[in-house]
């Protein structure tokens, strides 16, 4: 029989890949193509490094999936989880019941949240957090005597999850195309991508223009029908789209003007990614609701939730009575114990400050230096996330660069070179992005960026040989 225990000599990668393609359906995957290639088998992590079953050591530029912010292999996380598993592995928070880690975590989270946030609702994921927000927003307006306020405005190319509400809020055309989405009442405006839409404008002008699309949509729908606007401070899965500094303050002004609730999806930007506890704090927005997940537990155990600001909390808690919503795993004690230990690490190691003052600026300089590469149109970063565009012909302005024809898949070619040479980077079309663990040191950032530069050279040679230049 094949050896399928990872730490055992003779571990049989091919046999595991065969079982994988026979039985395991992966997220966002073409299984026919995967069967040809065989899945990569990740077996171990330590700090910012991962090892696969073939012994390859990789520097993880993506924190797993934007989540392993404190890095892999933290013994104190294991201990915290084991302790809670021993004491009380599960109890629910329905029927007038609670548990210690959930209460302690809620109390700590509001300490780190922006002013006005005193309440937390827990979920098992970011998608469930956004589903919860949709239900809360609708319930809020019902309690406020304006039940017709049901429209929620989001943005093209946003990512808010894979549940029916999450995928509807999201602006991913490929998700909507696969059936009956978005659900009624969810509307999308353009994303604040200067590269895509900003030709002929300054960045500052473009930020105001892009926020203006929200006002146009509110007026089109009738302000009395609009419940909320939702956005990621920096769009993550859409390709690390960093909005101009004028964008979010103008979004805030427009929401205030029409009484529309503002929702910040901080599933990626929360917990230090941008050098602040929450991305909205950097962007100059004062949201009413915040979705979080990922970094709250550094992905060690699934956890998400909603931070509920004063305006909504007052209605729900003081006036609303029962809110008929909740998950078996809302306030899961093991997940909350993991998150408490994760927060302790973040505070004790000053990770948020380190991103703001040390690693974020270092990534900006190091990653920014890639912009001189012949294949790179422009490169930018914010905190510990960054992106660059692969282009066929460079130009002085990002708006004059010539893109590769769609469908060549240069980003995927580049990603394969990265993986083969020990660095994990994600491709979003022809945009290459990173979001490393917040514990990555400046020396490790340099190591990552040098490997990226080397792989860009390989990609350039490769596309030249394919005759794509
Ligand atoms: N919102 C954002 C901004 C995200 O990036 C993600 C996940 N990438 C989600 C929501 C959904 O989270 P989950 O996958 O935990 O459901």
Care to describe what's here?
- By secondary structure, the protein is of the alpha/beta class.
- The chain folds into 2 domains: 22-73 and 351-465, Aspartate Aminotransferase, domain 1; 76-348, Aspartate Aminotransferase, domain 2.
- The chain contains 17 helices and 15 strands.
- It has helices at 13-23, 31-37, 63-66, 75-87, 100-112, 126-143, 164-169, 173-176, 194-197, 203-221, 247-258, 279-283, 310-319, 333-348, 351-368, 410-420, 442-465, and strands spanning 42-46, 49-52, 57-60, 117-123, 151-155, 186-189, 226-231, 261-265, 289-292, 304-309, 376-382, 385-390, 423-424, 426-428, 431-434.
- The protein has a 7-stranded mixed beta sheet with strand order 4-10-9-8-7-5-6, sandwiched between helices.
- Helix 4 runs antiparallel to helix 14 and helix 16 (410-420) packs across helix 17 (442-465).
- It is globular.
- It starts with 12 loop residues before the first helix and ends with a helix.
- 48% of the residues are buried.
- The mean pLDDT is 97.
- The chain binds 4'-deoxy-4'-aminopyridoxal-5'-phosphate (PMP).
- 4'-deoxy-4'-aminopyridoxal-5'-phosphate binds at residues 125-127, 130, 159-161, 232, 236-237, 265, 267-268, 293, 304.
- The site of 4'-deoxy-4'-aminopyridoxal-5'-phosphate has 15 residues, from helix 6.
- Its cofactor is pyridoxal 5'-phosphate.
- One of its GO terms (molecular function) is transaminase activity.
- Keywords: Aminotransferase, Pyridoxal phosphate, Transferase.
């Amino acid at each position: 029989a094949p050896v399928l225990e990872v730490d055992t000599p003779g571990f049989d990668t091919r046999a595991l890949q065969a079982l994988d393609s026979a039985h395991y359906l992966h997220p966002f995957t073409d299984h026919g193509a995967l069967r040809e290639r065989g899945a990569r088998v990740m077996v171990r992590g330590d700090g910012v490094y991962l090892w696969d079953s073939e012994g390859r050591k990789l520097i993880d530029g993506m924190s797993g999936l934007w989540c392993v912010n404190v890095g892999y292999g933290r013994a104190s996380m294991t201990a915290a989880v084991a302790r809670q598993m021993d004491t009380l592995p599960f109890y629910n928070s329905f029927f007038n019941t609670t548990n210690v880690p959930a209460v302690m975590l809620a109390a700590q989270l509001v300490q780190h949240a922006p002013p006005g946030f005193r309440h937390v609702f827990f979920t098992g994921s970011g998608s469930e957090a956004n589903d919860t927000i949709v239900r809360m927003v609708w319930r809020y307006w019902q309690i406020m005597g304006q039940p017709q306020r049901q429209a929620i405005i989001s943005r093209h190319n946003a990512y808010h999850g894979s549940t029916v509400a999450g995928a509807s809020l999201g602006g991913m055309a490929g998700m909507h195309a696969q059936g009956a989405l978005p659900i009624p009442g969810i509307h999308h405006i353009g994303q604040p991508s200067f590269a895509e839409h900003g030709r002929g404008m300054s960045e500052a002008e473009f930020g105001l223009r892009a926020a203006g699309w929200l006002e146009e949509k509110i007026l089109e729908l009738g302000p009395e029908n609009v419940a909320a606007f939702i956005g990621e401070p920096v769009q993550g899965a859409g390709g690390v789209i960093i909005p101009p500094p004028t964008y979010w303050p103008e979004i805030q002004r427009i929401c205030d003007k029409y009484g529309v609730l503002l929702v910040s999806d901080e599933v990626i930007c929360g917990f230090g990614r941008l050098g602040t506890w929450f991305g909205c704090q950097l962007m100059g927005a004062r949201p009413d609701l915040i979705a979080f997940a990922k970094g709250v537990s550094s992905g060690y155990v699934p956890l998400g939730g909603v931070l509920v600001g004063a305006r909504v909390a007052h209605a729900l808690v003081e006036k609303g009575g029962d809110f008929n919503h909740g998950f078996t795993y809302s306030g899961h004690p093991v997940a909350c114990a993991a998150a408490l230990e994760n927060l302790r690490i973040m505070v004790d190691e000053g990770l948020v400050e380190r991103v703001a003052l040390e690693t974020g600026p270092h990534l900006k300089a190091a990653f920014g230096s890639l912009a001189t590469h012949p294949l790179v149109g422009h490169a930018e970063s914010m905190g510990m996330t960054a992106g660059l565009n692969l282009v066929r012909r460079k130009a002085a302005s990002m708006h004059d660069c010539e893109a590769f024809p769609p469908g060549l898949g240069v980003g995927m070619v580049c990603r394969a070179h990265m993986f083969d040479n020990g660095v994990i980077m994600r491709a979003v079309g022809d945009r290459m992005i990173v979001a490393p663990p917040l514990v990555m040191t400046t020396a490790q950032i340099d190591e990552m960026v040098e490997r990226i530069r080397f792989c860009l050279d390989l990609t350039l040679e490769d596309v030249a040989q394919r005759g794509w230049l």
